[in-house]
Write a structure and sequence with these properties.
- It is built from no helices and eight strands.
- The chain is an all-beta fold.
- It is elongated, with a radius of gyration of 12 Å.
Length: 78
């Protein structure tokens, strides 16, 4: 049984379908709480999505050019 945790896009305000402009992790990377995972770009700003947990990235579920909204699966960490 795995202790994998889904990392989802948090509340990013009144934005839907925000562009992913950078993916900062790959499977096997070790992340700490608040380590940036991806960078998003809206009409007004860019923002990093941080990891809410520490662990090892086992899967990355998005790529540069994807569009995400609150609740979109970013990665799995265990």
């Amino acid at each position: 049984m795995s202790d994998s945790q889904d990392i989802l896009v948090p509340d990013i305000g009144d934005f839907d379908n925000v562009d992913v402009i950078e993916v900062l992790v790959t499977p096997g990377d070790v992340v700490d709480v608040e380590s940036p995972l991806i960078t998003l770009e809206s009409d007004k700003a860019t923002m990093d999505v941080p990891s809410p947990v520490a662990g090892t990235v086992t899967e990355v579920r998005i790529a540069v050019g994807d569009q995400v909204s609150q609740g979109t699966l970013v990665a799995k960490v265990e």
